[in-house]
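ingest -> validate -> predict -> emit
validate: passed (alphabet ok, no gaps, 382 aa)
predict: started
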Amino acid sequence: MDERNSFIDAWQKQAQTIAELCRQFGISRKTGYKWLDRYDQGGRAALEDRSRAPVKRPHAISPATADSIVALRQKHPLWGARKIRAVLQREQPHKPWPAASTIGELLLQQGLIQQRRTKRRTPPYTEPLAHAAAPNQVWCADFKGWFRCGDGSRCDPLTITDAYSRYLLRCRAVPKTDTVNVRAVFEAVFRECGMPEAIRTDNGAPFASRAPAGLSRLGMWWIQLGIRQERIDAGHPEQNGRHERMHKTLKAETAQPPRATLSQQQRAFHEFEREYNQQRPHQALAYRTPAEVYSASPRCYPSRLPELEYPPGVLHRRISQKGDLNWKHQKVFLSEVLERQTVGLLEVDDDLYEVYYGPQLLGWMDGAERVFVVEKPKSRWK
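emit:
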């Protein structure tokens, strides 16, 4: 400002030409004329720096577009800019919507986004569900951590999703996390959507037990239906990452805060199912909804539970009520979980048998010593 005022003072003395003044002050004649014009229009105050922001913004968001974006965000507070843009494009495909980055800036200006500190995250160890290349190849099941409703009643949500399409097949609060109640939920899903090729769970009850190979009564039922059970490694929920990510959204939209009663909480779960499957676009699905990708399984739930089949040459033995296998007039204990079930014995060496429940290898039986072990003996067989 001092230089600009000095330039104006020197010009008012009219002792030098404009070209000489500009050379003296080290500016171009264009700049010199600019400051003279500003002085003539507004005096000394007009010599202050002006904002460099453009006067016109031809690509600015129109008020109507901004209102549509803000309204959708307020209706779905957990949706990001990309999801909002995908939904708006789906509903009004002929209207030019701004980029996701522009939508994000608008939401930030409106105070609808809280900036978070960037965290350095360790890359996932594995991608266990990458093999799910079509619907119903793998379903994921788990319990969302229990919580209490407003009236103090306990809520244990059981969730089932299709790994490929992210379709939320069920979200039900079960009275008790046991085999009877969980099986009832799965049976209803099987009747409605058919059966998958595999179901991936963690190692908790009722999905697994301390029986050989972690077999549980629920897992045995799946094996009888021809469904393969996959269990993640203990302490590694990231191996079921897609399902866990759904749980995070479920908690934020239905349980923060919890509903007043268990029935109201279940209604919130039903509404979440509808929105999650039919309205919420997923980036991994090219911003399609799960309902647009999922289709029911052609494997129908049977009216009668089929018997286990074993290959030729496999000996069939029925387990007693106490979990024993009768072998040459002596009892060999396997597990009480296997009561009244039929296992298969395949001789792989002299008096050494592999013990199967359907396709599931449970362990080895030493026919000579009359003992069952879950690891192959090394004392007599190499």
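DSSP finds eleven helices and 14 strands in the chain.
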